[in-house]
Design brief:
4 domains; mainly alpha; Serine Threonine Protein Phosphatase 5, Tetratricopeptide repeat; 30 helices; two-stranded antiparallel sheet
Length: about 550
């Protein structure tokens, strides 16, 4: 009965549709909604079947990435099974489906509430394990070790003695992600490998679950500095998904884009990333109007974020604006389109960047849709935009407000990594204000690394160069290494790279190495000439360098 109904959804010769050729291009959402309206009148005397069909439609909507419609029909499914006094396990499954739809729409707090309600219902250990896995996935966005470990312990207890190898594999993956966030990357990679082997033993080499697990393993490999392995594992996973065909062909296109977005500069060069996105978009475009427009917009949003990492500011901003127009109606305050503020800032549209960051700070924080780490990013992004726009006092005042972040979120303080982001951001403000000693005090003991928009090693090296300390030779070596590493992966016209070259050039000039400084000045000017509309802030240090060299440009 269910199979026949689903087939009927996609018939092209029912009254009210156009001719067959035109109907084949109808959006799947339209076909599904048309069919969903048939459920109640067609099966009026079969409430159990009605609820089952609502669940089927909700799952298809979710698979097609139509998150708002998935929420609508999953909610109706959940209400139907509740009204029908269905078995507790069935009501728990309905809660799981609704939670997945809410999570897809970036409504994490609402999804967590629904999952906990489902856990209170579910007597079956396997269903409880699925609910806990979904809960873990949401909590991994805001890592609190005690809470994560408690969830893992409960998950393992649910699965003890349960012959469900795929759930055991997913539990291994969840634990591996917790390990990776705690910095235990090699142990996480090993546990990922065990999970993948389990899934392949059950489902064969073309396992869909194994492919999804490989994509997570690729992230850990990239973070561990094993870039070539990360790319290889990611490519294997995408090939496995593509071989399955059907919706997995779309999933493969989305997965390869997501994999590059998550690993970014850790595993890819700018040209390699561009090729992946071109392929993903080509696959999606083959489906035309049959796919919701949010699918393409999601990939474009990821592409914009990746282009920003590599310094393609102008094209990234154009992409982010296009995806905003498509996605905002679907998810007005979700985390998606999260690179728009960053893109506007780099492209020199500081007013739009301020508006975008205030949208987050004004809506996501009070609505609890943004965890502590997310909030720290928004504060840092807003402060950096103000700093680039010359509003130094406002940038400093905003970051001084961060200690009250936990009270505003009704959550614990940001994790260790977020605190490091904040220290590096404050150090940047002090450095740009000429307070070199204050900048160096903030940077003291901060591990070398890139903390969102701030590279602690580069900041420290520049402060040492400007202060004329005995460490200038070492600082020069650090800046040269940073420029060389960035030039190997970033787009040659990156304003980040141009600014870094200008800072290296200034340090060279202060050390009396004028020829080397001239080279960096020339390369920085070439890059910025190719993207003339980027923020004037990227030219500030370059002007200082040119003044030091006696150049007039």
């Amino acid at each position: 009965m269910v199979k026949d109904f689903v087939i009927d959804l996609f018939k092209l010769d029912t009254p009210g549709t156009a001719d067959r050729t035109e109907a084949r291009e109808l959006p799947v959402e339209w076909l599904l909604e048309r069919g969903a309206r048939m459920i109640e009148p067609r099966f009026a005397d079969q409430p159990a079947l009605q609820s089952e069909l609502l669940g089927v439609v909700a799952q298809i909507m979710l698979d097609m990435h139509a998150s708002q419609l998935a929420i609508e029909y999953a909610s109706r499914y959940r209400s139907a099974v509740t009204m029908a006094a269905a078995a507790p396990d069935e009501r728990a499954r309905a809660a799981l489906l609704l939670a997945r739809a809410l999570a897809a729409a970036e409504l994490g707090r609402e999804a967590r509430l629904v999952l906990r309600e489902g856990l209170a219902l579910a007597p079956d250990a396997e269903i409880r394990a699925q609910l806990r896995l979904a809960l873990l996935d949401l909590h991994l966005n805001n890592p609190e070790p005690d809470e994560l470990n408690a969830l893992l312990k409960a998950l393992r207890a649910d699965l003890s003695g349960t012959p469900a190898p795929l759930l055991h594999a997913l539990a291994d993956q969840a634990e591996a992600r917790v390990m990776a966030q705690a910095g235990h990357l090699e142990a996480a990679i090993t546990l990922h490998a065990r999970a993948i082997a389990t899934a392949q033993a059950v489902q064969g080499p073309g396992s869909r679950i194994a492919a999804q697990l490989q994509l997570r393993q690729a992230e850990a490999l990239a973070e561990a500095g094993r870039a070539a392995e990360a790319r290889r594992v990611s490519e294997q996973a995408v090939a496995a998904l593509r071989s399955l065909g059907g919706k997995d062909d779309i999933e493969a296109a989305l997965s390869e884009a997501t994999s590059v977005a998550r690993t970014g500069r850790l595993a890819w060069r700018h040209d390699e990333a561009a090729a992946v996105f071109a392929h993903s978009l080509a696959v999606i475009d083959r489906y035309g109007r049959r796919l919701p427009p949010q699918v393409r917009a999601t990939v474009q949003d990821q592409q914009a974020c990746v282009q920003l990492q590599f310094g393609q500011a102008e094209s990234a901003y154009a992409l982010a604006l296009r995806s905003k127009r498509t996605m905002r109606g679907d998810q007005p305050y979700g985390h998606r389109n999260s690179c728009l503020g960053w893109a506007a800032m780099m492209a020199g549209d500081h007013a739009e960047a301020e508006t975008e960051y205030q949208r987050y700070l004004g809506h996501l924080l009070p609505s609890h849709r943004c965890d502590a780490g997310c909030a720290a990013r928004m504060y840092i992004g807003t402060a950096h935009n103000r700093l680039m726009h010359g509003r130094v006092a406002e940038a400093r005042a905003l970051l001084d407000d961060v200690p009250r972040l936990d009270a505003r979120l009704n959550d614990k303080a940001p994790d260790i990594e977020a605190r490091r982001w904040l220290r590096a951001a404050r150090a940047r403000i002090e450095l740009e204000s000429g307070h070199l000693d204050a900048a160096l005090r903030l940077l003291h003991g901060l591990p070398d690394g890139r903390y969102l928009v701030n590279d602690s090693a580069a900041l420290r090296a520049e402060a040492q160069c400007r202060s004329g300390s005995d460490g200038r030779a070492l600082a020069l070596a650090v800046l040269r290494a940073r420029v060389q590493a960035a030039a190997a992966v970033d787009h040659p016209n990156s304003p980040w790279l141009a600014d870094l070259r200008a800072r290296l050039g200034l340090c060279e000039a202060l050390a009396g190495r004028h020829e080397s400084a001239l080279v960096q000045s020339r390369l920085a000017h070439q890059a910025l000439a190719a993207q003339p509309r980027v923020s004037p802030a990227y030219r500030r240090v370059l002007r200082e360098l040119d003044g030091q060299l006696g150049l007039r440009r």
